[in-house]
Write a structure and sequence with these properties.
Amidase signature (AS) enzymes; 3-stranded mixed β-sheet; 37% helix; 15% strand; globular
Length: 468
């Protein structure tokens, strides 16, 4: 088989080839590591590559296959990677903080355990921004993570390393997390599918939840089918979880081929009071509106006002610096400044209450609609270094303006999925997102499958730089 085709195949396809004996776990892992060694120096998607351990594990799995076992986990022998905000036992666990680059993870966290149980081979830890705070992946003391589509631009954040690794063909899928768009932002920047599950769908074991419960674990993928299959794997209660959702009526992977009734879908390309999306992002939404209408859905323009969320969300975001438990002096100046803005516990708990009140009103919107279509961002991806050397207040305002459509889903706990749509003049992908009703990932996946079937989403395989 052609190596490029293998590298850019879906995880489901790779798993099928392994089961059918057309490809061994060792061959696939070696191919991924070869691509990382040849190309990642210019991209910076990994903080830690576990080449020796991955080869040893893949060799063992190849030998197990030779014994023709009756039962194998669904992604046996498929390589993936873990974001460096999640712990792997004995593997450097930096949280994007340079002073912690040699800090070993104490245990495999719940996401890692579930991916191992599904048969994945772990290639290493992907890059993230400092404490997952920012929508670009440029942690001080680490090389910046560049967009494989155009290296002058960001791959997004905070799961920027995961997205760059998948986009560049280093692995078919990679783990990420989303506390304010941190799966959807890099998915949009890198032309991927980024599913942010509903609050309580995926465990944060063995730790607790992000302040305000705004963050959730998830995966970055190239196909909707992979996103659905992986949601089945990572979902579910782990002993001691403070809250959780019941299992879906049927596995998400079985939604392919299911008929979807015509839906009533709201759309907006303006986020009040912040402003309207740039023309390319408006065009991505408009194209998707037309496609959904052609699929039989009813689309209605709708005003979206998130003013009541802005201040409390900002306080909770700032408080996450303090919640890390790290001394401020080991952090970058802007992270220190954010931590210092968090204020008192009274202010923090007041912000949580304010956010919950605003979230109730926004969730009430979905009593009229089945889903909400939005841009992922209000303009194209940022250049590497675009946020450097700015006053901290200006950096904060630029971040808020760019990612304005994303925090809604985090504050409300609603599921959301980012999908590719267009490319801008720099050749960078531009995505859209669909936000779903409470705990209704199923409808999002079915809509995404429909859009995937009628779209000719641009792929990075057309870029010669990454074909060799």
């Amino acid at each position: 088989m052609d190596k490029t085709a293998i590298a850019f195949a879906s995880a489901i396809e790779q798993a099928q080839w392994i089961r059918q004996g057309e490809l061994s776990p060792l061959e696939l892992t070696q191919l991924c590591l070869e691509r990382i060694a040849a190309q990642d120096g210019a991209i910076g998607s990994f903080f830690t590559v576990l080449a020796e351990a991955a080869i040893a594990e893949a060799q063992t799995k190849t030998e197990q296959l030779a014994q023709k076992p009756e039962h194998l986990p669904p992604f046996f022998g498929v390589p993936t990677a873990i974001k460096d905000l999640n712990a792997m036992a004995g593997v450097p666990f930096s949280l994007g903080v340079a002073a912690l680059r040699e800090n070993p993870g104490p245990v495999d966290d719940g996401m890692v355990q579930r991916l191992r149980a599904a048969g994945f081979t772990l290639l290493g830890k992907t890059a993230t921004c400092e404490l997952g705070l920012f929508p670009t992946t440029e942690a001080p003391g680490f090389p910046p993570t560049r967009n494989p589509w155009n290296r002058a631009y960001t791959s997004g954040g905070s799961s920027g390393g995961a997205a760059a690794a998948v986009a560049a063909g280093f692995c078919a899928v990679a783990q990420g997390s989303d506390g304010g768009g941190s799966i959807r932002t890099p998915a949009s920047c890198c032309g991927l599918v980024g599913l942010k599950p509903a609050r309580g769908r995926v465990t944060h074991a063995p730790l607790g939840y992000h302040p305000g419960s705004i963050s959730t674990n998830g995966m970055l993928t190239r196909t909707v089918a992979d996103a659905a299959a992986l949601l089945d794997i990572i979902s579910g209660y782990v002993t001691g979880d403070p809250f959780w959702l019941p299992s879906p009526e049927q596995p998400y992977a079985q939604l392919r081929g299911e008929e979807l009734r015509p839906l009533k879908i709201a759309w907006s390309d303006t986020i009040s009071p912040i402003g309207q999306a740039a023309p390319i992002c408006q065009a991505a939404v408009a194209q998707t509106v037309q496609q959904l209408e052609s699929l039989g859905h009813h689309l209605e323009p709708s005003a979206l006002d998130v003013a009541a969320l802005q201040d409390p969300f900002k306080v909770i975001w700032q408080a996450s610096v303090c919640a890390s438990g790290l001394p401020l002096e080991i952090l970058s100046p802007i992270a220190q400044w954010l931590g210092q803005q968090a204020g008192s516990l009274q202010r923090y708990f007041g912000a949580i209450q304010q956010m919950q009140i605003a979230a109730r009103q926004l969730v009430g919107f979905f009593e009229q609609y089945d889903a909400l279509l939005l841009p992922v961002h209000l303009h194209s991806p940022l250049k590497i270094g675009a946020l450097e050397n700015l006053p901290f207040e200006e950096t904060l305002e630029q971040i808020i303006h760019w990612i304005a459509p994303c925090p809604l889903a985090n504050a409300t706990g609603l599921p959301a999925i980012a999908l590719p749509a267009l490319q801008d003049e720099q050749g960078l992908p531009i995505g859209i997102q669909i936000v779903g009703k409470p705990a209704d990932e199923a409808t999002l996946i079915q809509l995404a499958l429909q859009l995937e079937a009628v779209n000719n989403w641009p792929t990075i395989q057309s870029l010669k730089t990454y074909r060799h």
